[in-house]
Write a structure and sequence with these properties.
The chain is an all-alpha fold. It is built from two helices and no strands. The longest helix is centred in the C-terminal third of the chain and has 102 residues.
Amino acid sequence: MAAPSAPRPPRPRKEPQPLVIPRSAAEEQRLRLERLMRNPEKTVPIPEKLNEWAPRPPPEFVRDVMGSSAGAGSGEFHVYRHLRRREYQRQDFMDAMAEKQRLDEEFQKKLERNKMIAEEQTAKRRRKRQKLKEKKLQAKKNKLEQKKQEKEPDQSQEQVSSEDDEEDSKEEEEKEDDAEEPSFVMGRG
């Protein structure tokens, strides 16, 4: 026997936990979370997803072919029954897989259809927003043009008034030249 080495330090004693019986599923979950969070450094085992059960594939070569002839032994019935059960299981599994595949395809088609509908609605709303945006821009442009036109007539009126003054002075000169007054003057309204 080996020589005794230094005495081991005593193990830390766990605090006694009160016994709590969960009354509901939520309380049970809360207790589990509390137990996990007591020691956050401890790794939590997360179980891997179990592979789906698949039946054993049928044998490629069957050595003991059963016939329907009379004289089969009493033990053969159990072998036949076992093979029959296994074949029925395999067929049920294949039917279930086909149904699952059909449902998955339907689900994918439904997702695609919903996606297309959502894209169409989004495009429609985008066009509507773009239309409103263009309308606002057009209204803004029109407003700016109106302001420019309001400012321009003031300038054009000044030009017109200066032109009118020039025309008046010309008319006065003509009046002085002609003794007769014209019956109407163009440009005045």
